[in-house]
Amino acid sequence: MTNQEYIQHYLEFIKFEKRLSPLTVKSYLRDIGILLETPPKKLLADFSIDDIRRNVSILHAKGLNGKSLSRMISAWRSLFDFLNQRFHFKHNPALSIRAPKDKKQLPQTLSIDQTVKLVSISDSSFLGIRDHAILELFYSSGLRLSELINLKVEDINFSEQTVTVLGKGNKSRIVPTGGQAINAIQKWLELRKIIKNIDSEHSILFLGKGGRPLSARAVQYRLKIWAIKQGVPENIHPHLLRHSFATHILQSSQDLRAVQELLGHANISTTQIYTHLDFQHLSKIYDKSHPRAKKK
What we know:
mainly alpha; DNA polymerase, domain 1; hpI Integrase, Chain A; 2 domains; 13 helices; 3 strands; about 55% helix; elongated
């Protein structure tokens, strides 16, 4: 059997049995394609641990960071696990391989004043009303970009001020939504009714003028436009609002477990990075206010 035939079987497995998202499937296939580039034309059954190590070394030398390499190795490991079980390959050459560690970088965040300035849109045009609802919802509920663009009208519970989100691994969670976001969404839904070519009332929440769902790239572009218009001098992207949401909640509540639930993190260690951000905030306050903090 050829490499492509093996990969086709694996593709069917992750799409129809594991039911991974289309974005994750695309990412896995891209990473597997890179695996097969070095050494070229080598059969998957013949790959050794040295081949995997060589690939990692070459990619690291090209500037690929540890996080990207770790994701890539995970995709390779998953492929060989499947081949071992389904086609009786003898071993998994990626099993014991680990990516080089990067220096941990803290995520960028906006201050509360910057965030409020960014989301406080007073534009009454079609795009202004829609984008205001998008920005308010991003910051109010800390959603991922993929979660927001896949929201449906029925996912919003106006009476309880919550939104039901389908997150990573097709895991559903209910997230509180602030009054400002609820008001902005209600205004958008009134305007949304004039859009033609909508199949039913229960469809994607955020649409373009032609009735088509917004793409991730379109939302990213609109956020950058509003950052310029609102005079927020930062590299604005959807995840920045999620980081800001988490940091501001943690600064006020000091409840890491609650922030984990709100963000939909499977492991609290993922959420703990925000404790470093919070400590930086507290350190600045200490340096400014404590009488013994300042050097003479």
